[in-house]
Amino acid sequence: MPETQTFRVPNRSEHVPTARHRIRETLADWGITGAVADAVTLSANELFTNAVAHCRTSCTDVEITLALDGPVLMLEVSDPDRDLLPRQHDSGPDEECGRGLALVAGLAAEWGHRQEAHAKCVWARFTDVERLEGAHVPADV
Fold first, then answer.
1. Predicted structure pTM score
2. Closest CA to 20 of 2, 47, 60, 54
3. Structural domain containing residue 88
4. Furthest-apart CA pair in the chain: how many Å?
5. Whole-number mean pLDDT of the chain?
6. Is residue 68 part of a domain?
7. Is residue 103 in some structural domain?
8. SS3 breakdown of the chain: % helix, strand, coil, rounded to 5?
9. Parallel, antiparallel, or unpaired for β 110-115 and 61-69?
């Protein structure tokens, strides 16, 4: 049975560190550390930052879900702007923005998005995830 943790973070740039902290904390509780934890956290940071930067619905929360099923970890970041879908593009060498999805594509086994009834979800799938031996998963997860 997959282990899942979902939390909501206000859709504001000052809450990016909060999102990173919650992700790191969940991964550590699951015994996921090192390069995999770094890749998931960085990907979540990029997807959350994109939601904050591009969501046209103010005063909302972004929902972040981590789901671990054996060696596969899914990261999902959902926001209520269901019609503004992400697209990866080539950024020029002098552009300051626009590399987040390319970074996620390089870190995850695959990524994508889906439209839901009242939101869009951008997801990244990580494979070959190993947990530290004897890792403890809290009962409330």
1. 0.85
2. 47
3. 3-126
4. 48
5. 86
6. yes
7. yes
8. 35, 25, 40
9. unpaired
